[in-house]
Here is the input.
Amino acid sequence: MDFRPLNTLERRQLVDALRGNAESDRAILMDRQDTSFVGVVDEIPDEEVISAIKSVPCHY
Amino acid sequence: MFGRLTGAAKALLTDIRRTFQRWQRGRNPPLPPLINAGVAAIEPRPAQATYRPLQRVVLTDGVSRTLFEEYEAHRREEQGQNETGWMLLGLRKEDEVVVLATLPAGAHSDAGVAHVHFNQCAQAIGSVIVRQAHRGLNAVGVVHTHPGSLRHPSDGDYQGDIEWVRNRRGQEAVFGIGTIGADGFEPVRYGHQPRPNVQSLGEMMLSWYALRSGDATYRPLPVAMTLGPDLARPLHGVWHEIEEHALELERLFRQQRGIKFDVLQSAEKPGLSITIPVAGPEGAVQVVIKDHICRYYVLRDGDILLADCEEERVDRGVYLLLAELAHAAVADRQQSW
Here is the structure.
């Protein structure tokens, strides 16, 4: 079995993906063929958008 | 004597351990933190993107059309002197915002000649619907109109907006002001930009600004246009239905996992469809709202059954139907026992 260290970019993306998943429930995408990590979906949570909309002040 | 000897031995052991660790690090570079540490111990770095002050706002041609067309339509209405506006959804990039969808203030907004407070419940549901297929969209700004010629947000606007932008990505948002009057420019029948932050079509003008948390005032923001849709435009055809049932729809959205909203196009008038999955093969409850009429359907094994339910409150109708289905399922199981 071969173990290849991740390069800097791969490592950074994976760390960000895990952090986003742990803190904000963001999805982590996986390659269907070999289950390797293929990035994240830049999702904005519904609650963030709804909260922003409901807090728009009155305009004059 | 014995104490000094023990101390010297400890120091020697520490030196040996450090030397060994240095040698080991040189031989085997440290494993990535993912393998040798928990997620919480990973080097500190914010997961969110870096945002710089906005340099421009980019509108799709679809969004620009919506703003000018609906502004024009609003002016022709009986209440055309009242202020109106749109919530803007889009993508916050590093130093620009791309606006991809507009949510109208709504007929149920609180509006007069000197103020407008959007129908936020309807806009919240609108955002849920448009974001079903576009999860990256966020609230990036607000457009509202002034009946006079003030092409700049007012002091009253600033008081609210400066608080609102604090919780936006990059702590900044885009603000558009719609006015009538060419302000010295010759009105033309095609869209043009008399200034970098101003769009003009006929007598209508849209002036664009950015406001960042801590700013003392709004900053004129250059506006650019690109090809693209207004992703929320199909919703505008059923905005009446959304406004009428916004609270019920929001309740259903929060309580029912997998709920799906669709706009049903038709030759006469579009309708709003709400589909709630239920247990069973291809099972779902579907509600179609058109004008003031709500029709309830049960989808099962490819069949569509019209339910005898005349409930006007959508959430109540759905739960009555779900209760009926649950009752029928229990009865079926008892028969099979």
Remarks:
- DSSP finds two helices and two strands in chain A.
- The first strand of chain A starts at residue 28 and ends at 30.
- The interface with chain B takes residues 5-6, 11, 14-16, 18-20, 22-24, 41-44, 46, 48-60 of chain A (CB under 8 Å).
- The beta strands of chain A are 28-30, 37-40.
